[in-house]
Structures are given as C-alpha cells and as structure tokens.
Amino acid sequence: MKYAKFQQVIFGIMILVILATSLAMGVHKPDAVEITGQALILLVIIAGMNWGYRMGIPATAACFALYAGLRLGLRGELTTAALWELVAFKAVIYSVLGLLCSHMHNQMRYLFVKLEHQDFIDDETQIGNKRFLLKELTSRINENERYEIPFSLVSFTLDPEMLDMLKSTRGVSVLRDISTSILKNDTRSVDELARLENRLLVLLPSTRKEGASVCCRRLEGKMMRYLEHHFSNGELQKAMRVQILEYPEDKQEIESLVSSLRSELERGAQVLADRDQLTQVLVNLIKNAEEATPHGGSITVRVRNTETLAAVEVEDQGPGIKPEDRFRVFEPYFTTKEGCTGLGLA
Question: Which of 53, 71, 187, 287 has its C-alpha lying 20 to 30 A from 222's C-alpha?
Fold first, then answer.
C-alpha cells in the first residue's frame, strides 16, 4: 500500500459506513433524534479516521454529549431505563467507534505512510512524507501569523554510515525499530511524524520550546536505551543528533526547510525504476523515432508528472503506425521493418 492510496482507503471505509447507516435508517424508520444520533456517529467515524486521536476523542465526547442532550431534552426521557440505555449502550457505541477509528488511523498511517515493511522508502512514499510535512508546516506557519499560536519541530538525525553498517553487518533496521517500538506508541508524535531519509521529524502543535524539550527528552531517552544495545559509549555520542526549533523564534530555519521541501517537490517528475531497463526503453523509443523521422525532421521528448505517475512521451514526425498494428507493437517478435527482431518494445 502506497501513500497515494491511503486516503482512498479512508474514504472507501467512510462510504461503506454511510451506505450501511442509510440502509439501517431506511429499514427502521427512526425519529429525528435517532437520525441526528446516526449522523453524529458518522462524524465520530470521520473525525477518527481522518485525524486520529487528535480529533477523534474530542469529537466522540462532543457528539455523545449533544446526542444525550437531545435525547433527554426533546424526548424528556429522564427514566432509569433511558439513562441506563444511554450509559450502557449509546456511550459504549460512541466510545468504541471513536477509539477504534482513531487507532485505525494511526495504525494505517504508520503502516502505509511512514514506513514500508522492509525499512524501504520508495520514491512515492518519500514524496508523500515531504508533501505531508510541507502541508503541516505551511498550515502551522499560517496559523501563527493569524492567531500567534506557536509550534515546535523536533529533528532526530541518525548517522547514515552507522545505519548502513548495522543494516549490512547485523541486519538491524534502526529507523524501523525506533519507529515501531518508540514513536508508534507515542500517539501524539506518530500523528505528526515525518521521515526524511535518515531523519525523523516530530511536529508539536501549540507547543513552545520548553514543552518540546520535555517531549524530546522522553523520546530521546527511549531511543538511547535502544541504541545502547548496538553502539559503544563512544559511538553512541555520534549515533544521533537532536535539534529543537520553535516558530517564530527559529523562523529562519523552519522557513528554510519549507523552501527546501517546496523546491524539491516542484523540481519535476521523480520515479523509482530500474535505471538500466528504463534507459533501454528510452533508447529503443528514440531509435525507432529516429528511423521513422524524415531528413530535417525533429524528435521531441516530454516528461510530465501527476501526484502518483510520471509519463515520458517520445514524438517524431514520421508517418505513424497503421491503426491495425498499434495494438501489436508491444508483442514479442512483431515488426514491420526488415532486419529487425521485434523485441525493442516487447
């Protein structure tokens, strides 16, 4: 599962829940209070699945309080049975759904967005992390300019040489282990975590440097206890560097990071591919275009990209391919030219 598909999973689950709820309401034909209650349950699910614990828990409490007020206020049901139903049945439903959806959000972000199963970040996931961090930082900066709400950014940078050494000699994936055993269990950090190459960046909303230092010391202590198993005391000092930035106090450094992320994301198409095979495909396409182009003609190569795909187009000024042959050009041994094998595009 790649980053680009994460939100598709979220919205797919939401659509299924909405359809199931609509079907149940159509069968039972509830009154206005129960219809409102079902709509509030959908809000709890959406908040938990889309924003995790940060919004899931407050939304659960607010939606249940609103439903209880409507139930007791509009219906006037102040009997023992009605109160028992609210506490034992409705409260459980709201709480379970809120906690479950928030937990699923964190689990899926951890599994599908942050880390691949072999500690391998492919190009799409790497771009996804950069987009996520750029979006969050831009949002927090705008929030600070409008409401003067500060935020902090904690960066844990691990020595890349030591990471490679542990991976090659002992088969230990440090970043993956730290993420699964430490950051994954810190719900606030995981909810605002981005991984860029050998760095783990934790964004702490509405937190000044003093508060970030407390969080940082807790996480750093856990990380150091893990690293002690793999490094000597001398190596341990070089294994990880920690930096805490606060906005707007460290405005220049954070805005420099934002500018760097923006320039990297706007520099053009980026793909993960076998370089040799991709080169061979392009060589064959350009060679075919050269052979088809008349003397004095031109060949145009274009590269365009979307959020999830990159396309390379090779255009020549030749006569083109006959309509009946277009569906066969990628078949092995099919060719319309003498002395060719028909394997160039197969």
Answer: 53
